[in-house]
## 1
Amino acid sequence: MNWWLYVCGSCLVVTSVLLVGLLRRCRRWRCLADNRLELLRHLIDISFLYRDRPQLFSRVFRSEIAARKLRNTGIVATQRFSLASDAE
């Protein structure tokens, strides 16, 4: 009789741990999506701000999307820029 309680308790603990892990992952994805959306909004603001000065826009835009800056903010994965970091 007691073994049945142990099995059910173990299943509940494992399920709880899995749910906590999924919630954490969901929060991280949500935070990453919010950061990417904020970057997109910022780049759109820059495009409207410098619409009459294309050379200045190009310089500011490139500085905003630099691989090192995006990696440091956690917006993009590090693995995607392994080749780009070698070129820097």
## 2
Amino acid sequence: MVQLNIIPKGNKFTVSDLKGRLIYNIKPGMGGKIHLLDASGYKLYYITAEKKAKKPVFKIFLHDKELFTAECTSMFLDPGFAMRGETINIDVTSHDRHEFKIMGSGNQMGTVTLLDEEKENKYTLEINEKYFDDYIPLIAVFIEMAFGKINKG
């Protein structure tokens, strides 16, 4: 089981393991892109957010090629995302916007849980090792960007 902490700080996110070691940084870049960087600063993925969409929609790119789209399925009743691409078919679902199940092919792959901290939200991600990929921590970023204000609120 892979366990990570995702902590938003303003418009940046840090991803660390349970021992507090930095694994990834997620921060904004040029042209509205948000970059996922490994601990050494190498850019792995970037995402864009469609601001004109009625519900949040995020596109994930690897080497300037769209890998998949994460589209919000509902903001209030059974909130979540559908992540679809050529090789990716993942649903992220919740009933309370605090615990999200990561589902793929009818199986639960992992969870993202919101921990209410004093001023900032903090997320814990648990996922089976066989399903883990570098883009998986972005699920917590999608949750924060879509539901963060509602959860603080």
## 3
Amino acid sequence: MNMKKKLIVFLGITFILPLVCCLIMQSFPIFRTGAANLILYAIEGASPTIAAIVVHCRGKEKGIGAFLSDKLWKQFSVKYCLIGFFTPAIVLTLGKAIVYFTMGTNEFFSPLSVKKILIISWALVAEELGWRGFLQDWLQEQCREVWIPLITGVIWALWHYHFVISGTMDIPYVAFLFGCVAESYGYYLITKASKGNVVPACIWHFSGNLFFNIYHINPEWNGGSMIPYWIINGIYLVYFLMFMLYQREEKE
């Protein structure tokens, strides 16, 4: 399978599979609640990774074993895993502190239900083999480095259409797209630093979702205000800019 066909297959599965899951959940009452709903939700959320696995299963040059080895075990680094966890934790804690002490919109943090923790934990395996393990690598061979996080972030944001259909996302799409692009620069930097290993990115994704929910950043928890969301993404952009400048100085 050539590179263009790989991308078409990947994007096709990634975008169509969630729609199929949404249609099943809306059409059959049994899939709207309980374990059946969670299973479909898990498939829906894991469509990027499922797509990447399918592409590599069909490829002649590398099988799924080699793909998983390259992305999960080779170049594994505890250091970058810790960076992946603490970067979003620190950014979100700082952002929440600014919001809390200036706006006082809600409590500083609140505990999560077991169901919510399970859904958030799914981020450890659901998406990054697809976004950073396949799509980012594909773009690496096709375009200049500066465009890779931008394109990945836009596609990643557009993929969330199924959460809009199901009514589980209340952040305006333009703002959400900006956030996905901003975070994609962080994912790109840490994946590049870990030499292609996506485990740090998986941990980053989990940590970001975890603290985003613990600190109630969504507008629905802040009287409809988008200010907390913008503050968080502003801090991310400053952090990424400083990190990129530091890397440039190190190379020079």
## 4
Amino acid sequence: MLAAGSRGDYQPVLALAAGLRARGHEVGVTASSDYVDDVRGTGFAVEEVEVEALRIYNEQVAPGMPPTLPGQLDRLGRWAAELAPEVGRTVRGLWPRYDAVVSTALTISWAAVLAAVDPRPHVTALFVPAFPSTWGDASMLSVREGRSLTNLVAGRHALGPGRSLSTVALQHLGPGLSRAQRLRAVRNLVTTPTFLAHSPQVIAERRVMGRQIRCTGYPFATLPAGTRLSARTEAFLDAGPAPVYAGFGSQGSATTRDALRHTVSAARSLGHRVIVLRGTGLEEQGWGDSVLFVDGEPHELLLPRARAAVHHGGAGTTAAVLRSGIPQVVVPFVLDQPFFGRRVREIGVAGDPVPVAGATTGRIAASLRRTEDAGVRRRAAEVGALVRAEDGVARGVDLIESTLRRHR
């Protein structure tokens, strides 16, 4: 399993890895130095990429992130190029020791290049739909609801910067390849069997760029037996009506802190209590007894007891809120987050997304007010039941096994 990215990128990979292990497979997982302990704690063999990828991202990539998707992809491409020497060393070293490979969006190019030299069965699991499409419900690169040529134009415009991200391995290893191997590597990039490990309730299963996109459902990890909310959180929940959950991950930028501050103020202005995820550095004093700050609680246990959730729109958080059956408001920052913010509103389970650049207390309050609508709450409960019925791990493992068997 060629994992890479943030904690949210590792969690579904580890869930799929656990599903493969339960079927009798031996599984290894790559991890940058930031996440070695997390992966090792799950009992999988760890293939360490000796670089603190998340620290570099937070220090060099996130600050001053461009507002447009092509600019964001270009910056991510430069980040990937900086990590390339260590990634290449790790992947080249592990390659001979494994019978098959599952890559993700950030690692498909490495597997494509090495498979051109030393073929292995290879399948890619994506957690966001990153192919250009005319359809707004089938691609994070689309900008409009429904079907529009504008979506295809926007997707193709993003492909230029995105290509640098997907071909960094070819650029890094290219001098050692023959012309035939380079051509095979490029072909592998566009023909590797791929599935979307997310819910078909929010991403449409369509034919995109010649591929039939299949959604397995999001691969949620099984919660360990005996897991509970903290006593402090339980006491807060029991002391009053269901609160709004507010969480924007662990980025400590001023923009993130401001967005969280506006969110807490908006919820309180509507008379709601609030549970706030720490990590942004938002000051905790002065909010009163109606606001509880937490370091982290299992989404499976906390979200169903919340009134609504306000979050950044990451793939995993969006899926977790959908599964909980509560409405949501997305305050998107970058990359796939605007797509998920738009889609949850389009399927009727959320208020209007509030892009972080224009986030104010008033705008977030207006969107939160929309989540009180009886139709939105009913639709959120309906979608929640559908998502809970999806077994993203089992379906994902089924597709991995069937694809790899065909390509042995």
